[in-house]
Predict the structure of Alpha-catenin.
Amino acid sequence: MSTMEPPPVALKWDPKNLEIKTLSVEKTLEPLVTTLVNTKGPSKKKKGRSKRAHVLVAAVERATENFIKKGEEIATENPDIHQEMMAAVDEVRKTGEAMSKASREFAEDPCSSVKRGNMVRSARNLLSAVTRLLILADMVDVHRLLKSLRVVEDDLDKVKNASSQSELMEFFRNFGVNTVDLIQQAARRQAELKDSRLRDDLAAARAVLKKNSMMLLTASKVYIRHPELSAAKENRDFVFRQVCEAVNTIGDVAQGRAGALVPSYEGPGELAAALDDFDERVVLDPLTYNELRTRPALEERLESIISGAALMADSSCTRDERRERIVAECNAVRQALQDLLAEYMASAGRKEDSLDKAVEQMGRKTRDLRRQLRKAVVDHVSDSFLETQVPLLVLVEAARAGDERQVEEYARVFAEHAHKLVEVASLACSMSSHEDGVKMVRCAAAHIEGLCPQVVNAARILAARPRSKVAQENMDAFRDAWETQVRLLTEAVDDMQL
């Protein structure tokens, strides 16, 4: 473990903020809320004392005592937040006593609206105080996570500034141990969070830390051994940046902020969504049709869709026969829209059989266009994902042979191959309404795009120093990372529903 103490972590605590962010706080509050609601329920008795109310009051008192005891234990175990925790405990004790008094008075006289009102106000105050206590207790876990994060940040600085292989290995061992602890704490936090976006951000950050750790070591070793090679610095800086962004994201999410690591990959495919929207808009009540407004609006939406279809048709991956079919279907959709708009005009507010037929024909033609676009996507995927290993293999072989000229030639081929994978993934996304699948593909494609130039850099390093053991290890690490990422992208594209 790191011998230096990390800098103290400031706990940002707003006593007025009662937002519940974790499932454990919500679950802990549920029994108390249920009991308080039962206590406040209307009495069926017309007069006299309420035995049921006395039983419920006793249950609230027991629960309050448990909260106070747990809060005092947390305060003792965590000197950093002792003052804030004891203040929260005192508030629970005070509001709990007020609740007990008001509830017992109401139990003695369940028909009194004044005493009922006093009890309801006391219950609200107690619930707020307990919520504050639980949120602060939850922040203790955040505090521990942030302390672990500070240790890893300190380790990263040491790894970056290591001046020898032995120094690097010593610092990296500490980094490895402390990173495992951070990843485990982040996993526990992830399981607790209610916000799905924050959970996704934490999951992504943990994945980046896991998959980049070995590359951080090999890239750092290469940079220390061959500092004269610019590609070595680019490799090391890339991986270091990835790891730092992941660590920063964990810190952001722990404090309730959306992480900076994960761009928004949300939303369905643009072309699929546009077609869905168009299908809905062409079905109108004839009475609402307005030639001056409706016609240009629908024509504009269709032309936007056709522009997207044209991009797919013009893609270098699209086969000639498929391109012609897409163009033909675009023209057919245009004609179907004109026929439909003419029927809306001719119907003059009445619903005619011919109008129903025009609406059906419009739907058929948009379905035909979808079918051709989806077939084009399948063609692209089949062509581009068939031989994903060859461009990498020839690049690595040229690097091992120390042939720098060939490495540059194969680097261009490899980059074109990577670009095609990303392009095809984007086209596949555009025709899918399956948001989770689209998100996975977009994320995997972005990683491919970022990793490609660094695989080339690793090959350049090895080509320049083919006998260097650290250069060979670094090439192997980046090759493995690339193969893993391509496999993830391939699986994501296969699993995505078109």
About this structure: The CA atoms of residues 265 and 439 lie 5 Å apart. Residues 1-11, 42-48 have pLDDT under 50 and may be disordered. The chain has four domains: 23-140, 162-262, 270-383, 385-498.
